[in-house]
Structure formats: C-alpha cells, structure tokens
Amino acid sequence: MSYSDKIAGKLNELLEKNYDAEKGYKLAAEKVKREDLKRFFTQRAQERYDFGHELKSEIKNFGETPDKGSSLAADAHRSWMNLKASLSNDKDESVLEEAVRGEKKAVEEYEDVINESEIPVSTKQVLVKQKNGIVAALNEVKALEDQA
Prior knowledge:
It is a single chain. By secondary structure, the protein is mainly alpha-helical. It has a single domain, classed as Ferritin, core subunit, four-helix bundle (Ferritin, Up-down Bundle), CATH 1.20.1260. Helices cover 83% and strands 0% of the residues. It has 5 helices and no strands. The chain has helices at 3-31, 35-61, 72-87, 91-114, 121-147. The mean pLDDT is 86.
C-alpha cells in the first residue's frame, strides 16, 4: 500500500463517519420536538457536510478518490436511535443521549487519525480544526442534555 493510499484510506474512514453523522443529525432534527434542538441538530448536520467536503479535498490532494455512502455501523446506530426514540417517553432526551455517544466516538476516531505519524502537518491541521468543532458540539449537546 502506498503512502497516499494509506493516508487517503484513513481520511476516507473519517469521511464516511462524517456522512454518517450528517445523516444522524438530520434524523435527530426530525425526531426532536424542541425548536432549539431542531436548530442545533440542523446546524450540526451542515457542519458535518462541510467537514466532508474538506476531507474530500484532502483525499483528492493525495491523488485518491473519496468514498461515497455510509457505514454499516452508522446505519445500525441510526436504527438504534430510531428504536430508542420510539420507545422512550422523552424522545428529546433519548436523541440527546445518542448524540453525546456519537460525538464522543467521533472525537476518539479523529484523535486516532491525528496521532498517526504519517499524517502530513497540513492535513493534521484540518483534522484538529474539525475535531475541535466536534468537541464544541459535544459540549453543547451535553449542556442541552442537562437542560432536558
């Protein structure tokens, strides 16, 4: 596997996770009742869409092709979100719990790639900026969860 294949592979994994997060946030915006939560989830979906475009550019910089679609694990997570929300009396709180769980996982995934020694500094800067955005969203969703 060439250097560019390896880096692009790691970035494609993050790209797929961002596709998944975008879809999950869109679903969450549909599930919640509170307008502030709808707004929050819609903004997070847009943010992840934007992250995806940044990652696509980085992948193309390595002469590779960005992946399309979403992961099976994320499809299962969205199904779990659906089931949990439909069974819960407090749908907003259930969706917030799932958002916290998803964002914690995203931070871990970004840190794993950021800590790879092969990642170029310019790419690492993009990833750190995105991870910081996810951490900010995680803190915000935790605050919203405390309010629920």
